[in-house]
Design a protein that fits this description.
This protein is an alpha+beta fold and 458 residues long. The protein contains eleven helices and four strands. The chain has a four-stranded antiparallel β-sheet. A hairpin with a 6-residue loop joins strand 3 and strand 4.
């Protein structure tokens, strides 16, 4: 293949890749896509995962008590202390009869000692301390996993709220732009009628004021879209200023098929934060046993081997020591008793927090269920209000053209139509979010939830 042909192939491949990337960027962002990206890139969720990893690392730290410990050290000492010189010569195996000379014993010359030492120790019996530490660490690691699962569900709820917030803001902007266009047309129509002497100047002034109000509303709606996009982008872990493009629509979802009692039962069985609190309560039990175990004896083995020499690679002496040790505290100023009292109080605290959490979850489920029902009723009422406001505006426009009503009634009808439409969108937003809150309260708002595929479809 010639150089020119190779360049042509490279350019063609680059163009295809660029086109594919551009098409991917043009794809509308779905709710599930937003959730998937948030679960992958949200820094707050990553921090929760890091905490869980640290908890699992502490399990290995606690498990290390089952294994022997081995330490290696290298030291250097120089001095002319008579006892130091006498002992070092013995450990170096360099002591001779000449060293018994009294003058040398009382005023020895300085001596160097390079000591290489290996120390080993192993616990044989520690009154269950290692077992209880490992067991408690495992409970806390499991609790951390549940807390991460709860953080994932909390993030999904925030993404749902932000995603539908963008859709509502976009729809509000469309409604505001339509209202502004209608206000401009209405102003021109009134101006023409005023020139023809069909209406008074005050009608034109009222139309101009109304157009200015709609223009202000349109600007506020535009800013609201940008803020909503920034909020969604932040939850998705995008860079500063990134504004994801959402092209979904709000729909009326289905009402919850389960009753509130069934949702409460699910929450008590599946809510991750409750499972985490239960694990923490069990860990507090193990911690209290561990504090009680401090009163028990400890039995361990130890051994050490050392090499002493006047120079690093010179003639040396090798020595070793081995033995067993029993430790039993008789009195420590009441420290152990205080640790038991502290662990007992922490156990009671965990139990009380668990009871309080259960009642809070029960309240949260009931509130989310009622919010979902209320949002559904509000959406139905708002839908009817939109239809009624549209028909009312049509009738009043015809009556104003015939000179039967004032412009004040016409402008009031136009404002009522805009308010009815935005109220309907807000009700749909609250309905979708309330459904997500209900699933989150029950512990079922995961990335596989059917809720992420319903409503807000592009």
């Amino acid at each position: 293949m010639t150089k020119r042909a190779s360049i042509g192939v490279f350019v063609a491949l680059f163009a295809c890749a660029w086109t594919a990337a551009a098409q991917a960027q043009q794809q509308p962002l779905t709710l599930r896509g937003a959730v998937d990206q948030a679960l992958e890139k949200n820094p707050a969720l990553q921090a929760s995962k890091d905490q869980a990893d640290a908890s699992h690392a502490r399990v290995g730290e606690a498990r290390a008590g089952w294994f022997p410990r081995l330490d290696v050290s290298q030291g250097f000492t120089r001095g002319n202390n008579p006892i130091y010189v006498f002992g070092s010569l013995l450990t170096q195996r360099q002591f001779t009869a000449a060293n018994f000379n009294l003058s040398r014993l009382n005023a020895p010359t300085p001596l160097d000692n390079f000591q290489t030492r290996i120390d080993g120790q192993m616990s044989i019996f520690d009154s269950g301390r290692t077992y209880l530490r490992e067991k408690g660490a495992k409970k806390m690691a499991t609790a951390a996993d549940y807390q991460t699962a709860q953080a994932r569900q909390d993030l999904i709820l925030r993404v749902v709220r932000a995603y539908y917030g963008v859709i509502v803001a976009q729809e509000d902007l469309k409604a505001a732009e339509q209202a502004l266009d209608s206000a401009k047309s209405n102003e021109e129509r009134v101006r023409t009628m005023e020139k023809a002497g069909l209406v008074v100047t005050s009608d034109l002034l009222s139309a101009e004021v109304f157009r200015a109000q709609m223009q202000d509303r349109q600007l506020r709606a535009k800013n609201a879209v940008e803020v909503a996009q920034l909020t969604l982008g932040r939850e998705m872990g995008l860079g500063p200023g990134a504004m994801p493009q959402v092209a979904g629509t709000l729909e009326e979802p289905q009402a919850p098929a389960r009753g509130v009692a069934e949702w409460e039962k699910i929450a008590m069985a599946e809510r991750p934060v409750l499972r985490a609190a239960e694990m923490q309560d069990q860990a507090a039990t193990e911690n209290r046993k561990l504090a009680t175990g401090d009163f028990g004896p400890q039995i361990g083995l130890f051994a050490d081997c050392e090499r002493d020499a006047e120079t690093m690679g010179g003639t040396s002496g090798t020595n070793w020591t081995a033995g067993a040790r029993l430790d039993l505290n008789i009195f420590a100023g009441g420290a152990q008793k205080s640790r038991v009292a502290e662990a007992s109080a922490q156990k009671l605290e965990a139990q009380h927090q668990l009871a309080w959490l259960r009642s809070g979850i029960d309240l949260e489920v009931r509130q989310a269920f009622l919010d979902a029902q209320a949002a559904a009723q509000r959406a139905a009422a708002a839908r009817d209000a939109v239809n009624q406001a549209g028909e009312s505006l049509r009738i009043i426009q015809n009556r104003y053209q015939a000179g039967l009503v004032t412009i004040t009634e016409l402008l009031r009808a136009q404002s009522a139509q805009l308010d009815a439409r935005t109220g309907y969108l807000a009700a749909l937003h609250d309905w979708q979010v309330a459904r997500a809150q209900l699933e989150r309260a029950a512990g079922r708002l995961t990335a596989q939830s059917d809720l992420l595929s319903q409503g807000g479809r592009p």
